[in-house]
Structure formats: structure tokens, C-alpha cells
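name: query_chain
kind: protein
chains: 1
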Amino acid sequence: MVSSTSLGPSWHACFSTRHSATTTNATTVTARISLNNVSHSSPPPPLVVQKRSWLDKSIIPLAASMTLLLSPYNANAQILSGFPGLESVPGPELPKIDSLARFNEENQKRYAENDARFKESPILKELLERSKLNKEKNKQAIQDKYCIRGAEWGVGDCSAEGMSPQDRDEFIAMLKKKAGVE
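structure:
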């Protein structure tokens, strides 16, 4: 009989059933050794089992999702195609209460009057004018800031690239004075 140790390491022994033939004193003995049930082989480490379950949990859904996304066929709604949805169904007619309707009309008139009065108020006109002036002033300040930066770095429309160092310094000083930075 052939022992399991003569077959090599136990991790080789987990693939299939092996037939072995040996000769002892002119007698041929055929032994069938089940390598899946070798008593001294240890179970696979738990890390391998975890990798397989992680792999099964992540790769299979990913493959199915990619198959659906990259599929050249259009999805068919079949049973719901042509169904307009619940939004298109009119709701029930609610009873109308005269006192609530009059109250709503009075509120709408009052809101319209207040809006018109607010739009014509001198305070709103003054704030809008100030906002317009601030917008123009801030726009010019931003342009001046970028012009000074471009002159210092030697890039853009305000570049002082071709000037001598003295002319460059005078040009940057003039820009800063104009912008009110100094």
C-alpha cells in the first residue's frame, strides 16, 4: 500500500483521486487513494475563503452591471409604456367656501398693492443705484489688481517684459498709484 506522504506535500493532494500501482514480491497491488480526504491535510487558511467570498460578492455584481450598462439594446417599459402616470389624473373637486374665496382675493389685492409700493419706494431705488455703482467700482478694482500682478510677473496685457528694470519699477509704481494700492 502507498502512504500519502509518498505523494508529496499535502497541498498537492487536493485535486482528484489518484490510482497507484506498486509491485510487492511479484504481486501487483492497485490501491485507490482518495486525496481529497487525506487525514493529515489541513483546511485552507481562512484568508483564502474570505477572498473568494469577497471576490464573488464584488466581481459578479460588477460584471452584471457592466453588461446591462454596455448592452446595445434599449430598455422596454412594456406594461407601463403609454401610461401617463398619476399626475395626469385629476383630483376630486373640492367644495368651495365663499368666505375663504373672499379672504383669498382680499389678500391677493393687499399683496399686489404692497409689492407696487415697495418697487416705487425711494429706499429701494437708492439701494439699486448704490449696487450698480459698487459693481462698476469693484470691477475696475479687480482689473487694476490683475494688471499690477501681471506687470510684476511679466504676463498679460500689463506686462513689463521688454522694459528696463528702472522703467519696469516706475511703471508698476504708476499702476499702484492709479489703483490706490500704495
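note: Strands lie at 17-24, 27-34.
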